[in-house]
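Protocol step 4 of 6: structure prediction from sequence.
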Amino acid sequence: MSVELIFALFIFAFVSSITPGPNNIMLMASGTNFGFRKTIPHILGINIGYSMLTFSLGIGLMEVFNLFPLIKIILKTLCSGYLVYLSYRIATSSTSTDKNEKQKSRPLSFTEAMLFQWVNPKGWTMALSAITIYSPTNALSGIILVTVAFSITNFPCQCLWTLLGQQFRKLMSSSFKLKMFNYIMAGLLMLTLIQIFIVS
């Protein structure tokens, strides 16, 4: 792969990673509700899970779905259900300052964030586009490069969205404002359901 193509790949990865999507919406909400430090496992889970997804698609996972369309239908159903669940979880996050109440809600764990990548519509779109454009022959070196490029660019973008959410917390001077913020984030996450039916 030429230097120019590698540069274009990193630009593509950055633009894809920094723009709004399910992961970034959830990270912003988590940063607002729980702070940056407690969201680190969520960030790492996204990075590892997405890298695994990209690599798996590159080495031929998509061919399995083409051979067995029912698997794709099941995946879309699971994705829809899980996004609804996560939206509900954000909408009902505790906004109380009472410690006992706060303990009832928690940020997404490393494992939950990692597994979510397999039902993340934007993640699938990004990975399929990158593999198709920048590793059309599915050569192992190209697949690895695409995976590494996204891993490198994803992390700072995810941190930025989480820190942005943490800064928003300073504007949430009351439980009511925080609750409204959570409702908006939950609504935006629900809107990403549209992507599920766009992904072929």
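Step 5 (inspection) to follow. The mean pLDDT is 84.
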